[in-house]
Specification:
476 residues, two-stranded antiparallel ribbon, 20 helices, 2% strand
Length: 476
């Protein structure tokens, strides 16, 4: 395979890298920040189209980059979520007097790293993708520099992220030392029939590093503080695209690199899944800040996604992919609602702030209720179908008891979702909310409609695409 073919496989990444460089120069010399925002969104959508429609399939750069159905599926979801974050964030910052043209460029660079994660074929490209997207996310968390909480969030994310990167890199070095290669295909040959002790130790460290990226317990400690302190549109981005990229990378590493040791890593994933569901369900009960509450909600929901992956077969990976796409809609929509709400010039971020919202802003209240009920898993909302796929795959893989325990966690978490709905619909209002901005309200209502009824139609397309993507990992 020649170099030109390698470049064609990396077409989405080349579009984003070139776009980021051009926009950085444009923003530095031009005062029209709106043009930067618009072109960044266009670059993301063009890259999504290149990945889904125009891009060829194969392995390039000596196996370091993989373009297949799985990477195409993930990239379309990642780039679409990233493109939504730009119009959600730009006006939010401008209303607060922050006119950073770097915001959309950082979104593009993060999307570039996430695309590399979805296409990683060896441990080196894995690490480059993880670090490229992580560095952009650290800056995004602290991009509202005049806000002390945002600066604190960025610092905490950076310090703890450096620790997770160390764990990941140490695990990768152990795997390379004992398996003799960084390529997933060669590693798979060395662990056929089970991994030796050295490789298994490396795999545990690698899983710990990746678990941090998806906010899975017990590596979730950064999530509540970063969600609370970071700007609301940035949190909408954090909760969606990076989680999808990390979960797809997780699946590729385990399926393609360690498929022969599935019985060994399944045990680890089951523990992580149950711990995440428990932490998210019980710790969320004590939260009054909605951003922190949704952080614990994301921890619990990632536990369900990991449970699908723990099934260890193609049905489990398919369930995980469907779950992540539907969850991305919920989390983006919920934070779009928060970005749309303010009172007396300050954001509405606590449960008590939402008192009487249905009487003042019925559209936003209905949208928030839909996202809460969907995250809860109540039929017929999209979250129900997401959990249905995961539980079905877990039971089919002999993890019925684990699925029942996870379902109990969902019942516990129902309390804080229903409490929010009760406050919005039945409590007396604490004041008059300001008129929601058009872009945030439009995104919130559109995504709420997706949770129901559009999801019933969308699943007819998402399900076969997820099945084709899961088949690309080579699992039975």
């Amino acid at each position: 395979m020649n170099f030109s073919t390698d470049l064609s496989l990396a077409l989405p990444e080349l579009i984003l890298a070139g776009g980021a460089l051009v926009l950085l120069v444009w923003g530095a010399f031009q005062s029209r920040a709106n043009m930067v925002f618009s072109l960044a969104a266009v670059a993301l959508l063009v890259a999504a189209g290149a990945a889904a429609v125009l891009g060829p399939m194969g392995r390039g750069f000596s196996g370091g980059l993989i373009a297949d159905q799985a990477s195409a599926f993930a990239k379309v979801a990642i780039y679409a979520a990233s493109a939504i974050a730009i119009p959600l964030g730009q006006p939010w910052f401008q209303r607060r007097g922050v006119n950073n043209f770097e915001f959309p460029i950082l979104i593009v660079l993060a999307a570039l790293g996430m695309g590399m994660m979805a296409s990683a074929g060896d441990l080196i490209s894995l690490y480059i993708g993880v670090e490229l997207h992580s560095l952009a996310l650290y800056v995004l968390a602290a991009i509202h520099r005049d806000n002390a909480k945002a600066s604190e969030a960025g610092l905490k994310y950076f310090v703890l992220g450096a620790l997770s990167s160390g764990l990941l890199l140490y695990g990768a070095s152990l795997i390379y030392g004992f398996a003799g290669s960084t390529h997933f295909t060669v590693i798979a040959q060395s662990v056929e029939g089970g991994a030796n002790v050295g490789v298994l130790f490396g795999l545990v460290f690698l899983i710990c590093g990746l678990a941090f990226k998806i906010s899975a317990a017990p590596f979730h400690m950064w999530t509540p503080d970063v969600y609370e302190g970071a700007p609301t549109p940035v949190v909408a981005f954090f909760g969606a695209a990076p989680k999808m990229a990390a979960m797809v990378l997780f699946a590729r590493v385990l399926a393609e690199g360690f498929g022969g040791a599935a019985e060994q890593w399944r045990q680890i994933l089951v523990i992580i899944a149950l711990a995440s569901v428990a932490v998210g369900a019980f710790a969320g009960l004590a939260q009054t800040n909605l951003k922190r509450l949704w952080a614990y909600s994301s921890i619990a929901n990632i536990g369900y996604a990991v449970l699908g992956l723990a099934s260890g077969d193609a049905a489990g990976v398919q369930a995980m992919l469907v779950f992540m796409v539907l969850y991305m809609v919920d989390v983006t929509g919920f934070f779009a609602c928060l970005a749309a709400l303010s009172r007396d010039g300050r954001p509405m971020e606590t449960i008590s702030d939402m008192a009487g919202l249905f009487k003042e802003r019925p559209g936003i209240a209905l949208a928030m209720s839909a996202f809460a009920l969907s995250a809860l898993g109540l039929p017929p909302f999209s979250g129900f179908w997401a959990k249905f796929y995961v539980f079905k795959a877990a039971i089919g893989a002999g993890l019925g008891v684990v699925a029942v325990i996870a379902l109990v966690g969902s019942v516990v978490a129902a309390f804080y979702y229903l409490r929010l709905i009760k406050v919005m619909w039945f409590d007396a209002s604490a004041g008059t909310t300001e008129t929601p901005p058009v872009e945030a309200r439009t995104i919130a209502l559109a995504l709420a409609l997706f949770t129901f009824p559009v999801v019933l139609v969308a699943l007819a397309f998402i399900d076969p695409l997820a099945a084709a993507a899961a088949a690309a990992f080579g699992l039975a």
